[in-house]
Amino acid sequence: FIARDGKVHFFINAKVDSLFHQRIKPVKLRWTQAWRRMNKKGKVEEGGKKKTRKAAKFQKAIVGMSLDDLKKKKAQKPELRQAREAAAKEAKARTAQKKPAAGKAAAAKGKSQAPKAPKGGGAPAGGNKKNLKGKM
Considering the entire predicted model, what is its pTM? Predict the structure, then answer.
């Protein structure tokens, strides 16, 4: 059989020819190699699964810090590192305490203004509906 795209199909027997022309997929027929491949029948591999290779770890420099600086920081004793982190947390806490005080003063100024009118301009609810009674 020669298809429109020029592919040539040779069939072993009339049964296969008939099934091909009925457009029945070989994967759905239990006696075909395609079905056996799909359902993992037949060949039993002794090796099992292929072993996956573990990715090798390596360090790259980060923006603003060279590889040498990173290695120095990693080599530091944990006590020094903890002390530095504690100092950073303390500085953050100080800046956080200053900001809320400034924020409360601004909030007090905002409350002294007159309350705003509700949105919508006082129009009746559902005012934009069209009158369709006479149109039907």
Answer: 0.32
